[in-house]
Amino acid sequence: MSAITSPLFKDNARAALADRQLQRALSEVPLGLAARRGAARAGLPEFEALREIGRDIKNHTLAHLDLYLEEFERKATAAGSTVHFAPTAEDARQIIADICRSAGARVVTKGKSMISEEIGLNACLEAAGVEVAETDLGEYLIQLRGETPSHIIAPAIHLTQDQVEADFRRLHTGLAADRQLVEPSQLVAEARQILRSRFLAADVGITGANFLIAETGSSVIVTNEGNGDLTQSLPKVHIVLASIEKMVPTLEDVSTLVRLLARSATGQEISTYTTFSTGPRRAGDPDGPQACHVVILDNGRSELLGTEFREVLRCIRCGACMNHCPVYTAIGGHAYGWVYPGPIGSVLTPALIGVRKAGHLPNASTFCGRCEEVCPMKIPLPGLMRHWREEEFAAGGTPLTYRLGLAVWAAAAKRPRLYHALVRILMPVLATLGRRAGVFRRLPVARGWTRHRDFAAPQGRTFQAQWAEHKAGVPR
Amino acid sequence: MTTPAGRRESVIAKIRLGLGANDSAARRAEVAERLARPTAQLVPERAKQPADERRRQLRTYLEGQSATFIEVENADDVPTAVGRYLRSANLPLRVRVGDDPYLSKLAWQSEPALERRNGRAHGDDEVGLSRAAAAVAETGTLVMASGADNPVTLNYLPETHIVVVEEGSLVGGYEEAWERIRARFGRRAMPRTVNFVSGPSRTADIGGQLVMGAHGPRRLCVILVRS
């Protein structure tokens, strides 16, 4: 698994806010994606109705997940695939390493797969002596830098063009030093040339899956680059790595989800390539892999089925929640400290690595509710974050000062007379102290607040007092 | 638990435990029913348009995604259209093409300079020529079914991909395209790959700017045959 820095979320966030390169990179792209989603949604009048249907499809599938997985296995096996079940990340790594070993693999190409990040697949294969080439351009850029994705669909969203140019000059050493790398098209052309040689050299190609289809035993990937297709069509072995919740019943069901996915993700009507793969090449086919393996990962997801967190398993990984999140767009994805950032990460990460380590994440939300508003699967993300806050509190993960503060506040709030008496005393004091500036730049007990923003001074009287006067008919 | 069967049982058992469910006949029947009779859910209005509008949609969406769109009256015009396109794009008059009988029978004698190489694509092929199994108007999407007739590598390896679409295979929405695939390959069956292609390859991974030709074709040319 990739190193977990979620417990250091506060430090990560502080560093991210001070990182000028990162802030420059974040200033446009997520907001651009959000704007394009808005336009795509406006262009399809049925969009909101499709969200409800999409949610129902996933709810139905999750409620029958054991049976659909068995059907998928039956159909995929009939089509010539080998289906492997992996209860844990370790199982999945071992299964894939074994397949690569028996294929005699020296070079493995990879399409984009968040699950492969979750299970730390690259490090495992590299330790086994295999060269792993990420082929999604964004994934390639971060592989060069030894980084992890900072967004689930735009993994290198935190990088500026200048950083990419510097990396290419530093690491693509076989090329002329005075070559032009000014335009993005020149950078893309260079990456294309280098990765083309990897595609043609690969012995095994590994892709993720956006969906698994029980009707036909097919797996589906969605890309704009076509990298996932070269990854799976050229080598002799194709491995699909998917988690249990990618299942959908039929091609009709997947059609509904396809209508939602790209519009929510990038604002495209549909991604450039949507590929349905079923088994290895058929008799008479001149190309395609000779063997196909599907590795189905659980890694803690089945434990969510019996809890309120089942709803998070509807996620189709479009990234809309993070593009619309005021916290994500301020600090980027790395601050979240593990594989899945943004609101979906704040719900999923505690489930996968434990609330002890990831307790900060569900707290990193203003509860503005935009993530739930835009989620194509209607996942109640703020509500689920609130559940995690409760669990964290119950598990004793909340810091002592915070708990004490809450206890004091609760003691007053549960006694309305005491509360009103205290407020009646406190308000005029604060109003008098803050009268000149109208705000407090510094407050002794609320430095966490005033370090970054002013605290508005009360105007003098409490709402309760004003309301009582209003009811008594006193003119304002 | 390290055997494949043990791992499988463990995953399925944990799911059943989480769901509080068993493999009862009622649950099985519900699943079997849904798989036996796949049902279109909400099909958007834009996927239910008459033929003229479908043609316009296909062209508009594909051109909007930077594809070239050419309409010809009948199949005999295809070789000339291919030759003209290759010359206009300054490309060699050489295409890689599979065994598709429709493409093989076209009037290639009208383009004697055009060389056709048969088979799957290789790294040095510059132009691929394929025939779409269907095309979907609602998003301007070509549906490619892999096989010896239209090898999958033609769709991705060459820098230029030319796709012939017969108007009879132009449908409104994705669900209709699946009916075409089922009619050809059988129920609950698929070729090795079905590729939905909606434009040339692209990426916005560097600085958020759109660039064509990330890994797959830089150019996509669609030739719609009216009859």
Give structural notes.
The complex is a heterodimer of chains A (476) and B (227). With 476 residues, chain A is of the alpha/beta class. Chain A folds into 2 domains: 6-302, NagB/RpiA/CoA transferase-like (Rossmann fold, 3-Layer(aba) Sandwich), CATH 3.40.50; 403-471, no CATH class. Chain A has 24 helices and 12 strands. Chain A has helices at residues 9-18, 20-26, 29-42, 47-63, 65-78, 89-102, 114-118, 121-127, 137-145, 161-171, 184-201, 227-233, 251-265, 320-323, 328-331, 342-353, 355-358, 360-363, 370-374, 381-394, 400-413, 416-433, 447-450, 463-471, and strands spanning 81-86, 107-110, 131-134, 204-207, 211-213, 218-223, 237-243, 247-248, 273-277, 291-297, 439-440, 455-456. In chain A, strands 1-10-7-4-2-3 form a 6-stranded parallel sheet, with helices on both faces. In chain A, strands 8-5-6-9 form a 4-stranded mixed sheet. In chain A, strands 11-12 form a two-stranded antiparallel ribbon. In chain A, β5 and β6 form a beta hairpin. Chain A is globular and about 90 Å long. The mean pLDDT of chain A is 94. With 227 residues, chain B is of the alpha/beta class. Chain B folds into 2 domains: 4-36, no CATH class; 45-225, NagB/RpiA/CoA transferase-like (Rossmann fold, 3-Layer(aba) Sandwich). Chain B is built from 6 helices and 12 strands. Chain B has helices spanning 4-19, 25-36, 51-64, 78-88, 101-104, 174-185, and strands at residues 68-72, 94-97, 115-118, 127-131, 134-136, 141-145, 160-166, 170-171, 193-197, 202-203, 211-212, 219-225. In chain B, the strands form 3 sheets. A 6-stranded parallel sheet of chain B has the order 1-12-7-4-2-3. A 4-stranded mixed sheet of chain B has the order 8-5-6-9, with helices on both faces. In chain B, strands 10-11 form a two-stranded antiparallel sheet. The model of chain B has no long low-confidence stretch (mean pLDDT 96). The interface between A and B is large, with 102 and 83 residues.
